[in-house]
């Protein structure tokens, strides 16, 4: 009788892994901030790094609305949001985005092990499509983009929708997130959340210092530790 292939839950302890994009897979924040500051300066308005940082994790449309209000303009937030996304798509296509060390390697290892994965982001679909070109194969079985859901993070809908697309219960999924907004969404979905990155977060949340050197077997250890 041939040996049975281990199920994803037997390999990692979870049935699926759900990934945020900005700040989790790719260090896009400096590029977003530069785009916002350049646009505001072009409007003759002030927009500081602190202003940009305060909106990390918010929807692109919300950020555009805040910029328009600050500048005292009456632009359409959707148009401004599209302009910001165009800037990011160009940077990704031109290789001007820094990838979080070890993240893409872990995605590839999980895919090779047959673990279901989804990309869950407030960024727009065309930006995510530009980023997916940089991943070998087709590691994500589902992609939930910010311009394709009725409600964005911190609402749990993006994560519950991703879990449903993978055919798993959110409580059986592991989420990697970096922002308070994303962590709130993932937590509300019922998933187990590990926080990455440098943003301040309450101590109650599990933290992961780095993806570097992290492999499939290590996720099972994380699952065991979290279950104790």
UniProtKB/TrEMBL annotation:
Matching entries from CDD domains are given as:
HAD_BPGM-like
What is the protein's given name? HAD family phosphatase
Task: Supply the SUPFAM superfamilies for this chain.
Answer: HAD-like
Q: Where are the transmembrane segments?
A: none
Q: Which domain of life is it from?
A: Bacteria
**By its UniProt entry, which NCBIfam families does this protein fall under?**
HAD-SF-IA-v3
Gene3D superfamilies per the UniProt record, alphabetical: HAD superfamily/HAD-like, Putative phosphatase, domain 2
- Classification of source organism: Bacteria, Bacillati, Actinomycetota, Actinomycetes, Propionibacteriales
